[in-house]
């Protein structure tokens, strides 16, 4: 057996033992909506060596991010709640002593409370026990045959019954999709479908992703796969569980006529029962009959009222193959007798005229809700005839406030938060069921109309902001004028030249390359560039009080970032192949605090000022406006020290916290000799210094120059590109040589050059083999900003370590107070006396497509 075969066999056994097999990348990708995990937002000063361990970046833990979001929602009392009812009727639910009307169920027809299903389940338990503990491959419990028969009557096709839809996808997809096939996923398709597709990647099957319901992207991917794949499977939901919108089934069938290779796989669990003949679902309500190239996963739970899932496939040979050995179908336990009996009772209802009556009654309630909504300005994101509605609030804090008010008013609704939706697309999911009466539907609308403005006012949110966040028609909503709550004022500039030099340097100018002169250099270097990836816009904010004292100050840049900037190197290597033909593939417009050339504390905050918190709120509002005016894809606040207070502020405004790579600094440069320097190190680091660093110093002629000739800069630039091209742990664009040429005559830049001595290389002794591009910040901070190396000699002569050491020596002799060593290779820097500091960023994304697409690439190295 091959390694792939062993991996697949192991996966099947683990899955069927009751575990879900995902790696960190797969789990990251498959949560329905994901964070910008692949982009941890760091100052990406290109410091690395060919030794990948030295350039290693610790990636953010997705589970930690989700945990923080959920913890915040739990603290607000809107998540992980418990029903306290002694008896459930479907119409009401009691939480913390408060009885509420239930607008959160996915049992849209209310069959889970039907007495016929309950009685059937009770009788089955009495006759057959609580379970039938045996694999269905051996023998099915006595009720299975009847259920299969009745489902076949419903669909006109023999069904395959699975324990649930998640295990159903795990059983069906790896069996139906052959090694010669390819798969395209809608990026909002359910997590369970995406997760099942991870098994395909182990077999080398291409798995692509398109933006939600984007037919142009779908056709492009079909064309791309058509020459190498026998069948091309497109996988989507029939009805999407958050917004309640539909798959474009008719358009997809037309596309399949144009491309006969196209096969369609629908997860239609949210379209089941309330739609279609015999309640067979939304997709079949459009198709009428199941074509040979369509497979549907329906559910026996949710609206159906029982438990389990059902696959419908018109290909008899494939159906038998799935049934014979479909992973979880073989190894997982079968449905309990009570569940099968309840499903039989539900099937009887679906096969009778009663189902049409139930569907019509629910449709009437949906129409009633829509009629009421049409008379309001409530921001319902997708208004259609599904029982799922989504009221957008954009900011999580607005959602929490509104949900709390609705709870108190007696209405239970579901907060829709990250990762179910992008963090800035937070809102409330409202579901209608047969249990809801028209008078309470009307009362819910009235409560939302009453309390949404209150929640908006309390959280400094507006309808305009909500509709802008969801990309809705903004002309209908004009920006509401906000009443000023403080005496703060904002100075907003687009050039550092318009800001007082001494004031800027006093509050922000003693670090990195963003003192006043450094920012002037960066503006000159990165403005009006011919290459879009190196053409940046600069924005400065200073928030002042009535006395004109700065309470807060920062700067932002707007430009292109690679979406895989801090992705695992394997992902970047794959993407760089595509970028050889399409250099801007998978790049995004980012409005970010600081810039890609700098690292450090980019935001000055006077924490002792009584208006400090208001200043941050004001900045968030100002930058949000700019973010939308620029139509940026991501908004990034970065390089903060971990701070619980800021966590709450940013999360409530629709940001996720991301752990950034740690940063390194040396803040004590008071030694007078090599021995004194060594004495500042730990015993182990001291030994490392005298064995791995100091002895190699004699191999170099070390020259420090304030200016370089054009030829010298050309050599140094090639060394920089060596490092850049060999390091994808931090994957940025390559800076053009024009940036470096601007350093030559700038008084704040100098260059540490390493030449091999003639003793070490008689042939190449005049050749530069290492360079550190160093910025001198206001006579306070020394900044080794970029590095270049000749890899032919790097390992033999420890060039990287030597450059670090020479940087420390130079900073000391030039009387600088500290060194900003930046991110990456922190282990090496720590061994030379640097202190390591954790940093976090807060990010916001318009959508999650690029992150999910990169997640699909996570396992490509296993092919």
Automatic annotation (TrEMBL):
Keyword Zinc: no
InterPro entries in the cross-refs: Acyl_CoA_acyltransferase, Aminotransferase_I/II_large, AON_synthase_class-II, PyrdxlP-dep_Trfase, PyrdxlP-dep_Trfase_major, PyrdxlP-dep_Trfase_small
Keywords: Membrane, Transferase, Transmembrane, Transmembrane helix
One example GO MF annotation: transferase activity
Pfam families: Aminotran_1_2
Residue spans crossing the bilayer: 6-28
Domain Aminotransferase class I/classII large: 99-447
Keyword Transferase found: yes
Cofactors that this protein relies on: pyridoxal 5'-phosphate
Name of this chain's protein: 7-keto-8-aminopelargonate synthetase
Organism in which the protein naturally occurs: Flavobacterium gillisiae
Lineage, highest ranks first: Bacteria, Pseudomonadati, Bacteroidota, Flavobacteriia, Flavobacteriales
